[in-house]
Every structure is written in C-alpha cells, then in structure tokens.
Specification:
- The complex is a heterodimer.
- Chain A contains no helices and 11 strands.
- By secondary structure, chain A is mainly beta.
- Chain B has no helices and 11 strands.
- In chain B, the strands form 2 sheets. In chain B, strands 2, 4, 5, 6, 9, 10 and 11 form a 7-stranded mixed sheet that branches.
- The chains are: A mainly beta, B mainly beta.
- At the A-B interface, strand 6 and strand 10 of A face strand 4, strand 5 and strand 9 of B.
Amino acid sequence: AQRVTQPEKLLSVFKGAPVELKCNYSYSGSPELFWYVQYSRQRLQLLLRHISRESIKGFTADLNKGETSFHLKKPFAQEEDSAMYYCALSSGSARQLTFGSGTQLTVLP
Amino acid sequence: DAGVIQSPRHEVTEMGQEVTLRCKPISGHDYLFWYRQTMMRGLELLIYFNNNVPIDDSGMPEDRFSAKMPNASFSTLKIQPSEPRDSAVYFCASTRDRATEAFFGQGTRLTVV
C-alpha cells in the first residue's frame, strides 16, 4: 500500500531564510507526486506536481526515486508562505490522492 | 464556476444526532472524493465516486458513515449516530476524467459534543 510521510508537523523559519519541507513516500508503482497548500481560511489547492517540473511562487520540488523523496524547497521564504503544506501521492484507478500528515509552515518577520 | 461547494461550513451537534454534509462538485467533473482531516491522522480518503457510482468506500471508518451521490451535481456524507470522535473537517473534492489535479471545497468543520 502507498504511504506518504511528512516528518515535521511544525516548521518555523525567518523571512528570507531558505525553507525545506520534507516528504518521503513508499509506493510499488511509478509515483506521481504533488504538493498541496492550504492558506489560512482557504481551501486546499494544488501548489505543484512533479511531472510539470515547474516552479510556483518560488517553490520547487524534485522527485528522488533513489531516496523516495519529494522535498519542497524555496530559497528565500516570505511571510505569505505561511500555510499548511501537504505532500500527496496519486495512485489507483481514479488517481486518488494519499496525503501526508501535513507540515504547518510559519515564516517569521 | 464557483468551484466545489460544501455546506454547511460549520456544524455543531450533540452526540447521537444525525449529521448530513453536502457537496456540489464542479460541473463536468466525474470523480468525487470525500476526505476527513484531523490533527492526529491528517487527510484521509473516506470514499470516492465515479459517474455517481461509489467505487471505493474502504476508508469509511464505520457503518455509522454513509455517502450517496444521487446525481452528478450533488453528494452527501451522513453520520448516524454521530460521536465526539467524528469531530473533524470534512472535505469534498472533484476531478475531471482522471485528471490529476483535485479541486477541493472549503470543508465542513464538524464538532460533536
């Protein structure tokens, strides 16, 4: 069965500092991975997906199959990045998402 | 499109009462998912539908939980009887044609006292 692990429930960094949110997965097939973000009082929304290899709001994430990781990184954190971040893996016939437990990121002024 | 719409946004009920959560998916989306979010367990998939048909309900915690999708634009998640441990935020999400981006509603925060 698939599993997504986010080891940090809480992460605080200062504005301008680099940030890395960790995500590890276990899945027997070829993984399709995502990062979703939930800003305060807003709905969960897609931030980025590994197949796009894009940078959104300065965030990037690289799939490392050897380490089964998909860490989210940003070189210079901004206060507006404060949110809950979920790593997710898509699998099954409906490509349903299996989520990690989430990391609450707080960017301090 | 207004996106996925859930109602109510907040629900407070007494233990033993029936609770019904509602979801309107994005028009044209043929997959609908119900998730539960708690501090302890994060986001868990409860059940999903394809073209209004329940496909996988293995995530439904107990027989007290049931879900229906009578048509393409409406789904309900019912808890009867409710218990305090059911307190959580319940999210509905929809996708189109196995597309990989899921669109989420704003959730229903359920508190059972």
